[in-house]
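Incident review: delayed structure delivery

Summary: a single-chain prediction request sat in the queue longer than the usual turnaround. Root cause was a stuck worker, restarted by the on-call engineer. No data loss occurred. The affected request and its eventual output are reproduced below so the record is complete for anyone auditing the incident later.

Affected input:
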Amino acid sequence: MARRTCGYCGATGHNRSTCPVEKERIEAYRAKDPDAWQVYEYDRRHKRRKESRLRASQDRKCSYCGEQGHNRRSCPTLKQHKHYASIANAEARVGILEYLRKEGIGPGALMVIGERYYDQQKDEYTRRLGTHLVAGINWKALDFAYFETGKSDRAHPENKEVLSLVNLRTGEKSRMSLLPDTYMQRKKEDVKLARETGEVPWGLYTAVIVSPAETVEPPQGWLQSRSDTHLLDLRFGGKGKKATTKWDVCGRLEFDAVDEVRKRYEETGEEI
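Output delivered after worker restart:
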């Protein structure tokens, strides 16, 4: 990237409007004669520049809240909403961790997925239960938005597949999404029935826990929502990123968990 070159002194790293050489020379003129034409032109140019910046700041419109006078970078509403999301994150993760520990979903656990294969004896394709080892969890993606169906994966689908799995039969690695608690219980019944009958239903295409991990421990800071500001920024978009959390036309935040936090603080008047 080319560095700026000053049109007055020729040095790099600044332009004429911030040139220290010109400023020093003008101040010397000012000390001798405040009405000197060099002083007048310098002050007039800087005054015009300041007025132009002021007009630009008053005319610009924030792409987040829609108000004039500031942009997205300095938007106080966006800053406040990100803080609401951080609080919602910390509250949601308590429940997520309880669920993971209750089911034993963590590194070392075994999960099954219905998989299609060719049965040579029957000379046809059929389905069987494939056992997978949980090799890891993308903890950062497990946030306030994860289980809000159809929302968390709309702009960033890679954040939906949080489970890193290894097929114990083939050694093949894969990634899979985590089912909500209610769906997990239903699928566990499907797995039980499949083992009893030997017939695997076609709807069994998600990972179902069958053997829990001994311990399930999140990374340090995860419960307090301190370790993943990058994902939080993705939720709110900015600089070419498509937001999955926004202040919508109905005057509420799109994600229920964040909007509940917003309402709570607005109703109580409690400072954040």
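Verification: DSSP finds six helices and five strands in the chain.
Action items: add queue-age alerting; document worker restart procedure.
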